[in-house]
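Subject: complex prediction, re-run

Hi both,

The earlier run crashed halfway through, so I resubmitted it with identical inputs.
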Amino acid sequence: MFESAELGHKTTKEDYEAAEPALRAALLEAQYDLLDLREFAVVVLINGIDGAGKGETVNLLNEWMDPRHIQTWAFDDPTGDEAERPFMWRFWRALPAKGKIGVLFNNWYTEPIRGRVDRSAKRAEFEQQVDAIRRFEAMLVREGVLLVKFWFHLSKAGQKKRLKELEKDERTRWRVTERDWRFFEKYERYRDVAAYALRQTSTGDAPWTIVDGSDPRYRALFVGRSLLDALQRRLAVCGSKWAPRQTEAPLPVQVDRLTLLNSLTLRQPVERKHYEDELERWQGRLALLTRSEAFRQRALILVFEGADAAGKGGAIRRVTAALDARQYRIVPIAAPTEEERAQPYLWRFWRHLPRQGKVLVFDRSWYGRVLVERVEGYCAEADWMRAYAEINDFEDQLVAAGAVVVKFWLAISKDEQLTRFKAREAEPHKRFKITEEDWRNRDKWDHYAQAVCDMVDRTSTEIAPWTLVEADNKYFARLKVLRTVCAALSAALEPGRERGRA
Amino acid sequence: MFESAELGHKTTKEDYEAAEPALRAALLEAQYDLLDLREFAVVVLINGIDGAGKGETVNLLNEWMDPRHIQTWAFDDPTGDEAERPFMWRFWRALPAKGKIGVLFNNWYTEPIRGRVDRSAKRAEFEQQVDAIRRFEAMLVREGVLLVKFWFHLSKAGQKKRLKELEKDERTRWRVTERDWRFFEKYERYRDVAAYALRQTSTGDAPWTIVDGSDPRYRALFVGRSLLDALQRRLAVCGSKWAPRQTEAPLPVQVDRLTLLNSLTLRQPVERKHYEDELERWQGRLALLTRSEAFRQRALILVFEGADAAGKGGAIRRVTAALDARQYRIVPIAAPTEEERAQPYLWRFWRHLPRQGKVLVFDRSWYGRVLVERVEGYCAEADWMRAYAEINDFEDQLVAAGAVVVKFWLAISKDEQLTRFKAREAEPHKRFKITEEDWRNRDKWDHYAQAVCDMVDRTSTEIAPWTLVEADNKYFARLKVLRTVCAALSAALEPGRERGRA
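This time it finished cleanly. Structure:
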């Protein structure tokens, strides 16, 4: 969920000053178009970790755009007047009219999340509140509201640093309250509770945008561009003077080139001897875990995704080598059969679900929906956008039924892939592994990379996290896969241990 | 929820034999069109009260249509094989392919409802299960599945009668199990739990159809026609050889002329003396209730709907006469202002919500969305169809905040309305009350009647039920309104009493 927001994005003063004027002008123009058009209202939700720059950013938005047409609301604990009415009453009153922008700070997410963090609300109650929010937002969207949701994130170290800075300066000391520190003490819990709420409410119509709040210049440009992108895309599909744009995949809103993938060091040296020792060690561990008494009431579902020639097959073989042949099955996912195309896209995966005590390995998976189908345009944007939430629901059911779900993205560099392609062509018995299509896919490398980052940010959940595997060195990749599987299994099989749910 | 299904619909042998062949032929034709087209699958859910004829009806469907292309699944308690997989697994396996019809008996609703009835599931858990179902069904619909949901209903007396009949006949005795009788003992609870599930999952895309299960011929024709209607409507909007039909309000699927409204005896005699005594009595009671200590933590929200000249104003005055002027407000709802049109349709009602200890009277209300806006075509079918669920959510929040919500439909006959119109025109000081529009609305009388019946069936909930008021006699109408308000208030203000939630 927060992976991309912890990469430590930074924007230099020069870059900021170079980019800011154009962004400002574009935002102002979009705001006036919105106003002329009066066809829809814009609701901007500002939530997230204290100290991540929510306030500064909102002030900036008011500075960049025409504040006469932006209503900013900061909600504190409900006053008597508000407390005597339904929970949502004060938020309804804050809704902007068509043509206007409403910025809602500490909105309908704040109380439910706080209530769950300090345990005044049971988990089931909290999940109901989150669900009521999803229904409410769905209604807003169907009523024509453009809903833009920002979550400002900081790593734990980042938040501590930030709060201390604020306290040092007596002009800002007042901003750090007792409550801020109390919540900091519960950072992990707060993050997990928030992650759940974000995952459940990140729908195709109103997805969350996670903001790396650590660098003021970066977050300002990122939020500004994200808002601008949302405005322009919506204005573009409004009838009247704007010509409907093709529904194309959304242009990634990028401020810098730093992404989940390119921040990895793909080649990790491992000596052969070390590899062989470790391989034996972890395969032994996996053999024990999957033969344990406790595992008979569970199941293990492994998902392998990665570029062509990333080494999925090799990694899978190193895992299955540790398993009893009667215990596991490998499901290679290719284009759907005619039978499968006649069903909802998740059907072909449901049909393979294992019984208890079994291991199921997907060589490519349901994530094809948000990878190949998105990039190749096999399904509409609305379809792959809603797929993130549907996939999370799907994995939620797997975990609820006792399965341990481990997902791997094997990451290789474009050069390494080329080397492996050439090697394959050279070896007769491997030549079948390389096709025209593989070469074509290389042309779309950047589009796939973007799809992978979005996929990890939207579907790496507390119950089924993604593991990015640096795979230019096959030894390293295989060991990391085995270690991760063993860690996930032992965590799950340790009795009495909560499976990571807030 | 079950109002229309308890009217005791009946179909004579003659009517049945006259109608059945055409229905049969049309169903078969639609089935083959579906098969040729292969553009979508049809999932028919069969749920409801035991003994209400679910089995017989499904057998009939198989007899009427080509059973080779209907897959019927009856789910019992999960077998070992099924129990070891996620809850939804066995239902996914039962999904029909495009072009096919799947009839699912005791499906994903059965276990959650039973679990809640026998209290093995907490309310919050149950509500989460229901919500997971809604998300799952939304996904099916977006994947192109035509989802037709039937709930077979019987009144308590009706179910008892039915179970006894089955037991008497030794050919059917085996069908009545211990569990059936155990559930019969909990009839009210079962009905309330089911009502909640149906309300929460009756969405615009996949609404429930409640079947009066008491008469075999009636329910057969009703289910057959409802299914046919759904099939034809969907086939009509499929590209290929079918010309897209205008999105018009759905033709009511009627087997007989019996409806909620025309089953009322609209003129109820009341003597003037009796009226005056009772009026004084109930106004006194209301005065006490609204001045009670307990009411200071609550609020009272009254909704008055009814045809023109049904006597809403007069009834409202008789209520407010009992109240302290500082305590109540009357909100007359006319066409929305420009300010209100710039907001989601519920916004203008939220803005009026009262503080605690107050009484708010809506003279017409948010139900305009599913009445005038539906009938006059001011909003699309998709919009008023989704409004039922949105309105239920809205009222859910009112009640959760402590408000008592009482909703009245004042029902008068078309003749009585004419008489009153003429009287108004005769009296100079009342002439302003009657406009051209009022006369025009009379032409759409039947459309409004249908909209009212749908409204009551879809929004008369355990937390905010509708009261139909026979209003040809104003005395009777006013007394019934006052009595109902007092009853609702005293039920709510009696400490420790659950507000009707399952």
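DSSP finds 20 helices and ten strands in chain A.

- K.
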